[in-house]
Amino acid sequence: PAPVVAVVGRPNVGKSTLVNRVIGRREAVVEDVPGVTRDRVSYSAEWLGRPFTMVDTGGWESDARGIDKTVADQAELAVQRADAVLLVLDTVVGVTATDEAIVKMLRRSGRPVILVANKCDSRALELQATELWSLGMGEPYPVSALHGKGAGDLLDALFEIL
Ligand code: GDP
Ligand code: MG
């Protein structure tokens, strides 16, 4: 079976935009309102002829309650079932307490993680992305999911660990 890759991160960091960019379709729902993806949704993707499954998740929040708690639980479940994880971060905002809580959850999971420094729409932001090394999760890959920049290097790195 095709390897499974879970896409996790805070609400509004661009997870669904990234999924759409990689699958080359607009099926994952993108919204300016945080937390729109309520369920895990799987999509068939391919990189250089190699198939994989991408699982878009709702935004993970450490202090979530009610529906948001369900969304966070679904994201954790997606991580547990994944062969690798793309942790999406907002380079413009930088590292937040929630990002750090997600990193803890991911370390517990033991799954291999690749850091996606999203929203690197400019060269200056690409340089800013190096600050994400501070998470201690290895190299941050600068990407602009919106403009389609950096996805190739990211997917090359992903297939090195799959
Ligand atoms: P999700 O909640 O993590 O799935 O985030 P979405 O994919 O729904 O995107 C949230 C918002 O961020 C939307 O307004 C997107 O257009 C915007 N966004 C996503 N990727 C980028 C990017 O690379 N650059 C910029 N400037 N905005 C982005
Ligand atoms: Mg989404």
From TrEMBL:
Q: Which domain of life is it from?
A: Bacteria
Which residues bind GTP 1 per the record? 9-16, 56-60, 118-121
Give the EngA-type G domain ranges: 3-162
Q: What does this protein do?
A: GTPase that plays an essential role in the late steps of ribosome biogenesis.
- Give the family from UniProt: Belongs to the TRAFAC class TrmE-Era-EngA-EngB-Septin-like GTPase superfamily. EngA (Der) GTPase family.
Task: Please give the subunit comment from the record.
Answer: Associates with the 50S ribosomal subunit.
Protein name in the entry: GTPase Der
The protein's organism comes out as: Kocuria soli
Gene that encodes the chain: der
